[in-house]
Write a structure and sequence with these properties.
By secondary structure, the chain is an alpha+beta fold. The chain has helices at residues 3-15, 20-39, 77-83, 104-131, 201-211, 213-216, 246-251, 256-264, 279-286, 313-317, 322-331, 340-343, 355-360, 363-366, and strands spanning 45-49, 56-65, 74-76, 92-96, 137-146, 149-153, 158-161, 177-188, 191-197, 220-228, 232-239, 269-274, 294-298, 303-308, 334-339, 367-369. A five-stranded mixed barrel has the order 5-6-7-9-8. Strands 1, 2, 3 and 4 form a four-stranded mixed sheet that branches. Strands 15-14-13-16 form a four-stranded mixed sheet.
């Protein structure tokens, strides 16, 4: 048994996660390469490795002839009978090749073939590992700034956090641990190129999935999410169990669950609202914390006209229009907001504009009245 080779293969399989079968194939190919370099051809060379003992045999298949014309392919009857006593003209004889006979260059080339195969397999294993994690969140260690981009150590490979995927104002120190969302994993000749993000809305979604047990087991479902990275996120959730409060499950006791995610996102505000199949109610929830007088939603046009109390107009719109913008993204509706005073003279913002429709349809389909329920 070749114990040294067996131990080396065991170590490579454990540390690099490269299968022994792949390594055996690499050794076989390297020996064939060495034979080709040594003899000039390797068409009739065979290599056999015992998978259990790691003992290997390298031999050439040669035809028994009376007069040898090609030493690589043929063998004389006299020499053949030294290997096999009953050999006769026309037989194929296995002639063992001693690897010690190979020259230094042939040996070096064989070594390079094995090393190259190990490098290729190592890159392939790493690529497959991280490709499976694509669209998921992983923890990485900040290494260094490369220009305006940041190199993140993800374990067995490095990820690139491009400037466009960084949250404005976030500054990281080397060795700092952060969570990142894997955007894309590309296979390149130099190994996998992993692009990560801190701004993607899915980062928030995946953090909640990891933090909230009810989301992980499917009891609570994240229906929609809208994010302005570093500033604010709105998330709509619903419960598939009438005994479980979706918003409460996400917030946690004394806000423990949501606060841990806010800390990871460096203080980014997170609004969690209840999802509602009625577009009027959903838009009302999405515009929280502002109070709503009425919502006139058009599901076909995906537009909504919203009336709020005069003193709530700025709150509903939000700083630089952020609250209304996020609510529009969350619901998929184009939202037009006016105060009660403005709505008196604006077509489409008054109940009387829809009186004909109210006669035909149930009131709830067209609008949602102000609710006293509080949203997180």
């Amino acid at each position: 048994m070749n114990k040294e080779l067996m131990e080396a293969l065991d170590i490579l399989e454990k540390e690099k996660e490269i299968s022994k079968e792949t390594l055996f194939e690499a050794i076989e190919n390297s020996l064939l390469t060495a034979c080709k370099n040594h003899f000039g051809k390797a068409d009739n060379i065979k290599v056999e490795i015992d998978r259990d003992t790691c003992d290997f045999l390298c031999y050439a298949e040669k035809e028994v002839v009376e007069e040898v014309e090609d030493d690589c392919l043929q063998i004389s009857l006299e020499d053949a009978q030294k290997i096999k006593a009953d050999a006769k003209i026309g037989d194929m004889i296995h002639v063992e090749i001693k690897s010690k006979e190979f020259g230094r260059i042939a040996t070096q080339n064989a070594k390079n073939v094995i090393l190259q195969k190990i490098r290729e397999e190592e890159r392939s294993v790493i690529y497959n590992q991280y490709y499976e994690k694509e669209k998921d969140v992983v923890t990485g260690i900040v290494q260094r700034y490369v220009g305006r981009n940041i190199s993140i150590n993800l374990g067995k490979a490095d990820g690139i956090l491009n400037e466009s995927e960084q949250v404005k104002g976030e500054v990281f120190k080397p060795t700092e641990r952060i969570k990142v969302y894997i955007l894309e994993v590309k296979n390149t000749p130099k190994g996998p190129r992993i692009l990560v993000s801190r701004t993607h809305p899915e980062l928030v979604k995946r953090l909640f999935e990891a933090e909230v047990t009810e989301i992980k087991d499917g009891t609570v479902e994240i229906m929609s999410i809208a994010r302005e990275a570093g500033s604010r996120t709105k998330m709509a959730v619903r419960s598939n169990n009438p005994n479980v409060d979706a918003v409460g499950a996400c917030v946690g006791i004394n806000g423990a669950r949501v606060n841990s995610i806010v800390d990871e996102l460096r203080g980014e505000k997170i609004d969690i609202i209840n999802w509602d199949e009625n577009p009027g109610n959903l838009i009302q929830n999405a515009l929280s914390p502002a109070k709503i007088v009425a919502v006139f939603a058009d599901p076909d046009e995906k537009t909504a006209k919203v009336v709020v109390p005069d003193y709530q107009l700025s709150l509903a719109i939000g700083k630089e229009g952020q609250n209304a913008r996020l609510a529009a993204r969350l619901t998929g509706y184009k939202i037009d907001i006016k105060s009660e005073t403005q709505a008196k003279d604006a077509p489409g913002f008054r109940y009387e504009d829809y009186m004909d429709e109210y006669d035909e349809y149930d009131d709830e389909e067209g609008y949602a009245e102000e609710s006293d329920s509080t949203q997180e």
